[in-house]
Design goal:
single chain, 1002 residues, mainly beta, 9 helices, 54% strand
Amino acid sequence: MFRKVLLTTTSLAIATIVPLGVAHAQEARPDAAATQEEEGEAILVTGYRASIQEALRQKRDANAIVEVITAEDIGKFPDKNVADALQRVPGVVITRDGGEGKTVSVRGLQAGLTLTQLNGNYIASSETNDEASRSFNYVLLPSNMLSSAELYKTPEARIDEGGIGGTVILKTRRPLDLPAWSGFVTAEGTYSDTSAKVDPQLSGMISWRNEAETVGLLVGTTWQRRTNRSMEFSTESWTWYSDNNARSAVDVNGKALDPQPSKWWGGSGFNDQNGKHYSDFFLPTSVNFAVRDEQRERLGIQATAQLKPFHNLTLTANYFRFDLKGDYALNMLKIPEWNLARVSWDGNYAGGRLLNGLTLDPSGTIATGAEYRKLAGRAYYCNETQAAAGGKPSGGWGPDDCTIPTPQLTGGYSREKALSQTVDFAVDWENGPWRAALVGGRTWSEGGPSLNFRMSAKPRRFVNGAWQMGNSLSAWNLTGTPSATFSPDLQDNLRAGIAEIDLGSTDSSWKETSISQNYVQADVTRQFESSWLQSIQAGVKYRDGKVHRNTGNTLWYCPGTTTRYQNGCDAQASVARPEYFYAKALGHIEGGFNANVFPGIDFPAYLAQLKARYGDAVRYEEPDFIYNVGEKILSGYTQLNFKADRIRGNIGLRVARTKQHAESTDAIERFLDYFVDGPGGTPQPCTTEPGCESGFLKNEIKEKTFELNTLDKTYTDFLPSLNYAVDLTDRLVLRGAVSKVISRTGYTDIAFPGALNFVSQEYSSDRSAAGGSTDPGWTGSGSNKDLKPFEAWQYDVGLEWYFHPGSVVGVGLFRKDVKNFIVPVTRDQQVTIGGNTVTVRNFSTSANGRNGVSKGIELYAQHTLDFGLGFQANFTYNDTNMAAVMLDGKEIARSPLVGSAKTQLNATIFYESEKFLARASYNRRGELVGGLHNGLSIYSEPYQQVDLNVAYNITKQLVLSASVLNLTKEEQRAHLGNDTKARLWTNNYSGRIVYGGVTYKF
């Protein structure tokens, strides 16, 4: 029914084009200025009111469905971050990084389906420590460089393909459009409640042109230092435990899950040490509490030169540079399942190791809490010999049966950077009815850490043949705000040296990515003055893009050897010295979780010790674990722009031919043995000799091989589009659009190197003996080179009532029929390795969804009273179906479209006078759909945020300003499954941020 309404409305509008084109019976719509003069004396508005009024004028005059954000003045964009500004228009949802907007998704489709362009061309952006993505990282871009941002929700043939969700075109300023010697200088300070520090920010721009307006130069720069702390809670690998895996896993309502999730390979429930048995429930493999500290710097540079040698010829050259670098420290306290006896043949299965009890939700199918405690007066056995002497069955006895190895203190320290650069040259020519443009350029980026170090420690140590405990209690609770409880003396015990370095979880690996694209485009326009056909546009564009990702390690060798210090050449390597930990527990934990004590690793101190003991680190680049993607795209278009009395619009066809090559080296690694076998096949005990770890002699044996995987495909897309606007009256506009759109698959979806790991039973048993189990069998991840690109038909219709200058009330209906979409999945998968088919547990990859539908309605309004009080408000409702997810030709699950949020509400109220501006903004995003984990969709719970902005004009040139982001200190929370919120996935808090500054304009 929804689609029929859209198609009927569109068909009726098309039917009116030709009659209106020849009749010329009615007058054209008066412009906004004329309408205002008819109603009385024109009111001159400036600042924020002028920017939203200009944005509304551009929206009204556009033929497509477009949202526009314009700068209030030179160097003064409405929000500190471009993504934050975009989220205030209907249908936009953003993700955040350290409290700042990072990526943008539109109308229920994930961020990778939003195409971001700078002045009409793709802009490459790499992450500082993540994989290459088609999404633009808005953290890189200073907002004060922009004059406007346009979001095209419906495409025109002249605009590059690639944005199923929408296309964001960011526009910068040009010197020939500005007065000579104009510009600004701004100095600001930034404060966050989680870091309790004030950081500086400086920015400025100057633009010059000669009197003849034939030569112009513009230079702008922004420098920012930012200190931030984020609190991050997460869970891992929710698994179903049952005494009988033939029984179906169920949701909280007792309904069998379809598909069935991965189940504990041991095929059993387990006991606690009080004799209670648990079966048929979900339990996370690990519960994690983390504090992330960031110190980063951002630099943005723009240089633009223009030359107008003739009145009809303009030459423009641009250079943009965006730098982001920083030091990042993540301190995480992990509570894994190490103190559980999870297999029925474990010697301590009946005794329950140190589990003191689980808390289950009301349905009894979800563990929402656990306590591990060493009870006074109870006998505990640390090895097979002690257990046998105590009359216990043999099998699996080790330090996890007598000590609490949690919290595992882990995390990492990294020095990261990302750089994005763009250079382009444009020629614009006009002669009578002809317009022509030629643009050529290159955009490239690179990113990755120079150091990415991971270190882990456990609160216990093996001294003189006996284990000492630094912690006697570890407990977690997921109800409400997640919480962790440890022994009150944990911090003091760590500083007393009661800890061991977990060398198996201490290493330094990194990844680097680079993205580049060369492009050239030619466009020509023929304008017509006397016909309903306003103009014909045609053009051709060639793009040659490359993506590369490589990995490597930072290594420290024992002196005089090529043996890593973790591999047994230093008997003291696992000794945890007190200075490796902070002298005091971490404070300023303002949200995200609660913890009675939070010790942290002093990573710089540990790294300094490594250098003092082993010398300078060796940076090693992996020759194999890489991937490359190449894309050569040739596209062309023809677009007809028409206007006949009260109807206007465009119709066009874009054709794009994509030649794609992807290659990756997949790794297969087998972990065969960890400790030297002693008598009876058990790990050989040791004390202080080299290679001694957790009381056993280490001799890790593993094998690693690589296999090259390639993809070559060529496909051609024909993308028709129609946009129309009908001025039903001087104030009422009807809009509609029909188009076919595509987005190419993500780089990592088709090229991420596969990693398959096999853990032998021997290796698993050895790691269990040391404390900290590694389940035997196959695990892994990899890309899916059979993925098909995103493809969709979309339909739009809207009605807009401009009841007053600068004011509107509107409604829009939209529908997207997505033939192919991509979902990240984690599931047990059959994989052929060396001619043998094996089951890879929790295999992470991507799969195609089929026949997804995103449909909804947008409501919006804007109005300003004459004395300066005004508001903006919009509401979006988006409904997506449960579409089939296919892998290897089989339906493995059903999922909504990834990135979809059912509701979104934005409201802004402001007051502006000649001297003063105050603005309060409220944003609420409904439940957001993520990928799949173990057959269950990840749902980000509704998130809301209140931001405040004030400004005072001391003079016309000198302005004081202040902003508060996240006034109410909101947290971002996610859970698994749509039957309950009890399977908590994440809960994060990035802080309340305060800005204050002064700007001088000239």
